[in-house]
Amino acid sequence: MTSSASSTSKRVAIITGAADGIGRGIALRLAKDGLDLGLFDLPRSQQKLEQLAEEIKNEFGVRVVNVYGDVSKEEDVKRLVDTVVQELGSLWAMIANAGISINRVLHETPTEELDKVLNVNFKGTFFCYKYAAIQLIKQGKGGRILGASSIAAKKGLPEQTVYSGTKFAIRGMTQCAAMDYGKYGITVNSYAPGVIETPLMDYLDEYHTSQTGQPKGSWTKSFENACVLGRLGKPEDVAKLVSFLVSDDAAFITGQSYLVDGGICFD
């Protein structure tokens, strides 16, 4: 970020799904940028989140507040925003990062799996946007709202009907929210990762290789050839984009969904 450390140190970012993968990478990068952080994840991730918070405080000297809950529950997201603002004083950026993926052919998708993915990915992101917007409007100083989209929001993929549908929906919600909140100086964007080395990708690889009988890791590795850079992404690749989008340098960018995929898909 180009802003001085003294100005960024007073800014606060909330990151959901912060214990692992891309969320963890974003937390480390924004701490390096000097932002104080509200980290959010499920109660089962408490040990990982506590370790991350300690690492961040020791290395970067910023303030960190951990909150536990479920993004699909509106009261948990409201409590998240309220707690972080109470503890850290304000809010600058909401990073609605939490998400899940369940791969199934459309007609083989049980309704309970449909509901679970919709609840976490779409409703969870909606609640994060909603309560961040309420707080940012009340503060009257602008701010940033970011959501986790996906390469699957730019192009449908086999056996990802529900996941892809929720990520397309996040793109649409991001565009609408950008129009709603521009007058308040609030920008709304999303990041659309491709194949990133995360626990979620390990889960998807295990599913696909179990279906085909191929060796574990082969499904993920196959994307190296599909990517023009010839490698898989890392959480820090996504975190660099998020760092830019929450900075003052991105003040004139809103309503966009940016691919971070090493050149698999082109707009």
From TrEMBL:
A molecular function (GO) term: oxidoreductase activity, acting on the CH-OH group of donors, NAD or NADP as acceptor
Stored Pfam families: adh_short_C2 (PF13561)
Domain of life: Eukaryota
InterPro entries registered for this protein in UniProt: NAD(P)-bd_dom_sf, Sc_DH/Rdtase_CS, SDR_fam
Keywords per UniProt: NADP
GO biological process, one term: fatty acid biosynthetic process
Family: Belongs to the short-chain dehydrogenases/reductases (SDR) family.
Annotated PANTHER family: 3-OXOACYL-(ACYL-CARRIER-PROTEIN) REDUCTASE, SHORT-CHAIN DEHYDROGENASES/REDUCTASES FAMILY MEMBER
Name under which the protein is recorded: Acetoin reductase family protein
